[in-house]
Structure formats: structure tokens, C-alpha cells
């Protein structure tokens, strides 16, 4: 299993002090420098989400990341004309299409691939024609996986938020949903990734989910990095992945 580190919240910390002042010589922390530390620590990829409202990551951050990332750049994006055009200009290794709501603190819930099939199909084809692998961030729901299969995407990223927030029998039920969704995805020839709400405490529970190839984790690693540094935080998470 591989680890992709989402560095969005490094930019969140920067924007809290330097929003509108990115040319300041005192502007910090630098998401690009953070990405380099993550790679040095052993991360298998860097994930970044350029939101329409630019609340954390900025265009220039992504441009610099494309120039510097040595592993894999996974670009999370809403399915809007502006961001689609940006992705095709930047040419990340992968794009992960996510839902995006202005009022949410961060992405909550999976994409409705079934309901948005037509608009997604056009974007998927444009990305694939340019050589970019496409992932859909979806709920562990069989109808959504069927839609992803019909869209012929290479990857699904299963939303693990409901699992992470549940307790007791409800948590086990959510884990069973992830297992079933992973099995169906793999049977359809789709790579299975997962993300959202995964932390140092619950990651071991995901070891029973079959076919998982990559976990994308951001907030928990950045929180830990505040205490022990980015390199140590990434190494600690890597140590919790199944061998």
C-alpha cells in the first residue's frame, strides 16, 4: 500500500497569516518545501486540491509543485471549465475529481458519478486523451462504482469519512461497505484508493479492506507535523501501512 500526502493544510496555515501577501519575504510555510520533505521521508506521492475559491492552495503553488515533485502529483479538482483547463495546462500525473461546495470546510462526501455522468464523461475523456490518469472520489456505493466503471476511469478513491466518524456497530458496517466496494472495483479492473478522515489511530482497521493500493492522507499528518515535524510525521504514518 502506498501513501499520498495531501499538503493543502500547509497552505491553510500560510493563508491564515499571509492571504493577499504571498509576495512577502516573510510568507510561510511553503507547501512546495513541505512536499519535498514528504518525498524525502518516503511518501509515494503528493496530493493537492486547487479549489475554485482558492482558500488554501494557489495556482502558483501547483505550478511550482509540477516543476518539483519527483514522485507523483495527484491533482484534486472540481469539474469546472476553469479548473479543467488549468489541469490540462499543468499536466499532473493523476487527477481526482471531487465534489466541491463553497460552505464546506473541506470536501465532505463523495462525487455523484451516476447523476453527473454526462458532464464527467467529457472531462474524463479530455484528461485521458492528454495522458492523465483519472480518479473519482466516490462513496463506497455500488451504483457509484458501476458509474465509474462505465466512465472507464482508471481509479476510484473511496470516501472513508463515514467510516472514520462512526463508532461501534456502525463503524463495522461502514468497514463492510468499504470491503464490498473495493471488491467490486477491483473486479471491474479499477485501481482502489481511499481517503478522508484517516489518521494514526484508525488506519490499522483499513488493513482488512482488500485491493487498496493507495491512501491519501492530509489533515492528520499535518497535525502531527506541528508536534514532531513533517518528516517524522510522514515516517510514522508509513510505518502503519501494511507490509
Question: What do you see in this structure?
Answer:
The protein is α/β, with parallel strands linked by helices and about 240 residues long. The chain contains ten helices and eight strands. An eight-stranded parallel beta barrel has the order 1-2-3-4-5-6-7-8, surrounded by eight helices. The longest helix is centred in the last third of the chain and has 20 residues. It starts with a strand and ends with a helix.
Topology diagram in text:
Elements: E1 2-6, H1 8-18, H2 31-41, E2 45-49, H3 59-68, E3 73-77, H4 81-90, E4 94-97, H5 117-129, E5 133-138, H6 142-151, E6 155-159, H7 161-165, H8 168-187, E7 191-195, E8 212-217, H9 219-228, H10 230-239
Parallel strand pairs: 1-2, 1-8, 2-3, 3-4, 4-5, 5-6, 6-7, 7-8
Helix pairs in contact: 2-3, 2-10, 6-8, 9-10
Low-confidence stretches: none
* First-residue to last-residue Cα separation: 8 Å
How big a fraction of the residues is strand? 15-25%
The geometry reads as globular
Order of helices and strands: EHHEHEHEHEHEHHEEHH
Largest sheet: 8 strands, parallel, barrel
* Rg (C-alpha, Å): 17 Å
Total tally of structural domains: 1
CATH topology-level fold name: TIM Barrel
Which assembly state applies to the chains in this document? single chain
Amino acid at each position: 500500500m502506498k501513501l499520498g500526502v495531501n499538503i493543502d493544510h500547509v497552505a491553510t496555515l500560510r493563508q491564515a497569516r499571509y492571504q493577499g501577501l504571498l509576495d512577502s519575504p516573510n510568507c510561510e510555510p511553503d507547501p512546495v518545501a513541505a512536499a519535498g520533505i514528504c518525498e524525502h521521508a518516503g511518501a509515494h506521492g503528493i496530493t493537492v486540491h486547487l479549489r475554485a475559491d482558492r482558500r488554501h492552495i494557489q495556482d502558483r503553488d501547483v505550478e511550482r509543485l509540477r516543476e518539483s515533485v519527483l514522485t507523483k502529483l495527484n491533482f484534486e479538482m472540481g469539474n469546472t471549465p476553469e479548473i479543467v483547463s488549468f489541469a490540462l495546462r499543468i499536466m499532473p500525473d493523476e487527477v481526482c475529481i471531487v465534489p466541491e461546495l463553497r460552505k464546506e470546510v473541506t470536501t465532505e462526501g463523495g462525487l455523484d458519478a451516476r447523476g453527473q455522468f454526462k458532464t464527467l464523461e467529457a472531462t474524463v475523456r479530455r484528461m485521458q486523451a492528454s495522458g492523465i490518469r483519472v480518479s473519482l472520489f466516490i462513496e463506497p456505493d455500488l451504483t457509484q462504482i458501476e458509474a465509474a466503471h462505465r466512465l472507464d476511469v482508471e481509479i476510484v478513491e473511496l470516501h472513508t469519512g463515514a467510516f472514520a466518524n462512526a463508532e461501534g456497530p456502525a463503524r463495522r458496517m461502514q468497514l463492510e461497505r468499504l470491503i464490498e466496494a473495493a471488491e467490486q472495483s477491483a473486479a471491474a479492473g479499477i485501481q482502489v484508493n481511499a481517503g478522508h478522515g484517516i489518521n494514526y489511530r484508525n488506519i490499522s482497521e483499513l488493513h482488512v479492506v482488500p485491493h487498496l493500493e493507495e491512501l491519501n492522507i492530509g489533515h492528520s499528518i499535518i497535525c502531527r507535523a506541528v508536534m514532531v515535524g513533517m518528516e517524522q510525521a510522514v515516517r510514522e504514518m508509513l510505518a502503519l501501512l501494511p507490509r
